[in-house]
C-alpha cells in the first residue's frame, strides 16, 4: 500500500510500505476513506516531537471501513464504517478507568502516527479497536466525521472544559487555526458574553468571525489592549492558547484576569517562560492536556443533530489520497494558501477551489 512516511525532521514522502494486518486480538484494520493533516503532524516534521522515529507512517485522524478484526473485538466487524480516534484506549489501566485515555499505560494513548504507524495511508491498524474506533451513523458524512477524530474533542475537552468556560465569560482564543476555530464553536455552546479571537492571519480572523467570534484582532495589533478595553481593565475570564509557541502562551497569561483560567491546547516544541513573579498573586489556574476523546460519542450525536459546524465551515482544500505531498505543502503554507483544514479522499467537490499556485 501507499503511505505518508516520516523520514526525519523536514522529510516525509508518499511511498510503498507493507500492508498492515491484525497483530493482537484487540486490533482492527481499517481501509482509509477520508483522512486529514493536523498541525501536530507539522510539529513532527519540524522535529518538535522527537519520539517519532524515521519510518513511521504519519497521521492520527481518519474515517474508513473495517476490513479485518482480531478475535477479541466485539463492537465492530468487517464492513462497518467507522471513525478512527486520535487516541487509543486499552480500557483497563488506571488512567483509562478514570477516563484519561490519552494517558493510557498499556500501549494506548496517542500512538497512531506517533509511536506506531498512523492513518495517512490506504490502510491502518488500530489497536484496542473496541474503544478506539466509533461506528458512524449514516447521517454524518466522512468529511464531517473526520473533524471528530481530533480537533473537536481537543477543542472541547482541552480548551472549553479545562478552561471551565461559563455563561457570561469573556473568552480570548489565541490562534485561529482548525483547533482555535473548533474552540470558538464549542465555546459558544456555553453562552459566553464575548469571544475575542487573536491571530496573525487576516483570513483566519475572518474565519473566526464566521465561526462566532464577537471581536477579532491581529496578534501584532495590541490584542492585550483590546482585551483590557473590552473588560474594563480586568482581563479575560478564560484565555485559550491554540498555537503552541512561547509568545502566544505568554500573551495568554498576560490577558487573563485575576482568578481566571489559561487553557493550553497548543503543542509546544520549545520552552515558554512562566512569569510567576507576576502570576503568583493573581490566583490564575493554568491547565495543560492531551485530549482523552471521552467526549467523542457526545460530539458525534451533536454533529448528527446539526449542533456543530460541518466540514463546509472548516475544510478549505480537498485532495485525492495520492496527493498527500501536495496537501502537506498547501497546509504547511497556510499563511499564503489560506488553508484551514484539508481532507484527502472522501467525497470530492471540484467546484471548490483547492490548492493555490505554488508560490514558494
Structural account:
With 360 residues, this protein is of the alpha/beta class. The protein folds into two domains: 202 residues, Alpha-Beta Complex (Quinone Oxidoreductase, Chain A, domain 1), CATH 3.90.180; 136 residues, Rossmann fold. The protein is 27% helix and 23% strand. The chain contains 13 helices and 15 strands. Strands 3, 4, 5, 6, 7, 14 and 15 form a seven-stranded mixed sheet that branches. It has a six-stranded parallel sheet with strand order 10-9-8-11-12-13, with helices on both faces. Strand 12, helix 10 and strand 13 form a beta-alpha-beta unit. Helix 5 crosses helix 6. It is globular and about 60 Å long.
Condensed summary:
Keywords: Metal-binding, Oxidoreductase, Zinc. 27% of the residues lie in helices and 23% in strands. It is an alpha/beta fold and 360 residues long.
Please name the defining characteristics of this protein:
alpha/beta, Quinone Oxidoreductase, Chain A, domain 1, Rossmann fold, six-stranded parallel β-sheet, 23% strand, disordered C terminus, zinc, oxidoreductase activity, metal-binding
